[in-house]
Amino acid sequence: MDSAHAHEEHGHGDHGGASWATAARATLHCLTGCAVGEVLGMVIGTALGWGNVPTMILAIALAFFFGYALTLRGILAAGVDLRSAVRVALAADTLSIAVMELIDNGVIALWPGAMDAHLSEALFWIALAISLALAFVVTTPVNKWMIGRGKGHAVVHQYH
Question: What is the pLDDT of residues 7-47, one digit of tens each?
């Protein structure tokens, strides 16, 4: 199999752009890191009695951290040096995580009562689940567009 054909099979060749399945997998990868960071940030902020703004800032920072960390893990496992791996992770995930966090936190901020819901309340978990699902739906086309242009997770696939 030639390299052009192999490249197209991953769904991000120059002809026709990325497949929706490839974009969905890339988005799910980002969503995993974001969800871990969001939940951990909310748990820490709530446990420490922080207000909404510092808790949200911590959750966003941790979402970026865990999103990048998941990508770094795979790239480093492929034998790439740390500096190059960090560059690849930043290039691959920044826009995806930023869009995801904007949607996720926007939904939480606009949902009546969600910002004040405690971890023990169903509203907290329902609002978080719906906000992450909406973030996935909005971010998938962004990732499809990026991968179709050889950016985002298309860069990561070179190391698999």
Answer: 334 443 443 578 899 889 889 988 999 999 999 998 899 88
Q: Which amino acid is at 98?
A: A
Do 33 and 63 form a contact (C-beta atoms < 8 A)?
A: yes
Q: How far apart are CA 16 and CA 78, in angstroms?
A: 28
Supply the DSSP string of 28-80, one letter for each residue.
HHHHHHHHHHHHHHHHHHHHTT--HHHHHHHHHHHHHHHHHHHHHHHHHHTT-
Q: How far apart are the first and last CA of the chain?
A: 17
Query: CB–CB of 111/34 below 8 Å?
Result: no
Instruction: Pull the structure tokens for residue 21.
Output: 């399945």
Residue 35, Cβ density class (10 Å: 0-12 exposed, 13-18 middle, ≥19 buried):
buried
Q: Is the dihedral of CA 88, 69, 82, 9 positive or negative?
A: negative
Q: Is the entire prediction scored with pTM above 0.85?
A: no
